[in-house]
Amino acid sequence: MDRRDWIPVAPTWERDPEDKDIWRRVVTMPSLALNRAEQEYLGNIAGKQVCVLSVGDGMAPLALAALGAKVTVIDSTATTLDVLVVRTQVVGIELEYAQVELTDLSPIPAERFQVAYAAHAAGLMQDLTRFYSHVFRILAPGGRFIVNEYHPFRRIWKAEPGAARLAHSYFERRRERCEPENTDPEPAAAGIAFSRYQFHWTVSDHFTALTDSGFHVVALEEIGDTRQAWELPNLGGLPEQLVVAADKPA
Predict the structure, then answer these.
(1) Total number of domains in the chain
(2) Number of Cβ atoms within 10 Å of the Cβ of 30
(3) ∠ CA 27-41-173 to the nearest 5 degrees?
């Protein structure tokens, strides 16, 4: 059996930063956006109703649609949605869109989706359980929720070369956003990008919030361990991504 700790992150994390058109290739290479663990827990999503919570870098919605899913992207900022609309037209992918605040998904009908996917959204949520409870409501019974987060262990170091030095306690949940964050590669989730705080949730926080929301956590993976080119200091050896799969009971 493969050692789970050796699953690499998606190749997009190691891409050339000057490569601005990687999104054009994701429709033929979904692994550019989705790592092996994510694809395993998604399973065969062809024909399924899938929601993506936040546009992010726009790669995941394209990859999921390329795998045959009927994808709805939920985001609150029209400009980020407009960029994705243009890209879908270029690559020939169809998506649906809902301009809704991530912190309040009440406009979305209950039990609307069979799969939900959220990447790097938790750091902007003041109440993680409330967010996951909203996701629980919009999932159909038996639906699956995939969470991908830049690993909390990589968010606590000073942004400086040399030996790694702590900037924050791992257990400090709320931080002022004005402080430089070297371990924050994801685009800010639209609609709450100008929050005063960046929220740091531990691995146990994610697990507890999911179970308190009604989910049954079926898998928790820590993926990859290599250094990324944009990281200061060298964080090689620490897990890169936290991937969680949780099901809504049938």
Answers:
(1) 1
(2) 21
(3) 100
Are 8 and 36 in contact by the 8 Å Cβ rule? The answer is yes
CATH of the domain at 242: 3.40.50.150
CB atoms within 10 A of CB 85: 13
CA gap 35, 33 in Å, rounded: 7
Cα–Cα distance for residue pair 82/207, rounded to 1 Å: 34
Separation CA 228–CA 183 (nearest Å): 10
List Cβ neighbours of 21 (8 Å cut-off, separation of 6 or more). none
List, in sequence order, the alpha helices (H) in 24-140: 36-42, 59-66, 78-91, 128-138
Q: Which of 101-110, 116-125, 183-192 has the lowest mean pLDDT?
A: 183-192
Structure confidence by residue, pLDDT tens digits, 64-75: 999 999 999 998
Domain of residue 26: give its range. 4-247
Amino acid at 109: P
Q: Quote the pTM value.
A: 0.87
Q: Maximum distance among all alpha carbons in the chain?
A: 50
Q: In a 3-state reduction of DSSP, which class is residue 166?
A: strand
Looking at the DSSP bridge assignments, the partners of residue 145 are: 116, 246
Angle at CA of residue 189, ends 47 and 178, nearest 5°:
165
